[in-house]
Design goal:
Blueprint: E1 32-35, H1 40-55, E2 62-65, H2 68-72, E3 81-84, E4 87-91, H3 97-113
Parallel strand pairs: 1-2
Antiparallel strand pairs: 1-3, 3-4
Length: 114
């Protein structure tokens, strides 16, 4: 019996996602949040977002939120999801690179006009 053994990373994709405390993120911060468990769909969305950011030559930090209590604070019931400045941009589906580019272009066009 290994009760006190160090817990292994058993996420489906073996990615090291760090959990954030409620006070560790600011809903007004200029970063993209990827909300999800770290599963294959979350990884695919992350890949699409990163490719879209690179193709659009945008330097926006991307952060993962894997704690479902924190994900719920955004009102998300299905993941993966994308949040920017506290605004839910997409949830429940994996966007293609082209869809991510459209979403990012619309989002940052609005952001620069505010």
């Amino acid at each position: 019996m290994h009760i006190f053994k160090k817990k292994e990373n058993n996420s489906c994709c073996k990615t090291d996602f760090t959990k954030m405390n409620q006070t560790e993120f600011n809903k007004d911060a200029s970063e993209l949040l990827i909300l999800g468990s770290g599963c294959a769909k979350c990884q695919k969305l992350t890949s699409s977002i990163m490719t879209a950011l690179e193709e659009l030559q945008l330097q926006i930090p991307v952060r993962h939120v894997t704690d479902f209590a924190q994900i719920a604070t955004f009102g998300v019931m299905s993941t993966p999801a994308i949040v920017y400045k506290g605004n839910l941009l997409s949830y429940g589906k994996v966007l293609s690179v082209e869809e991510c580019k459209q979403l990012l272009t619309q989002t940052f066009r609005k952001d620069t006009h505010e």
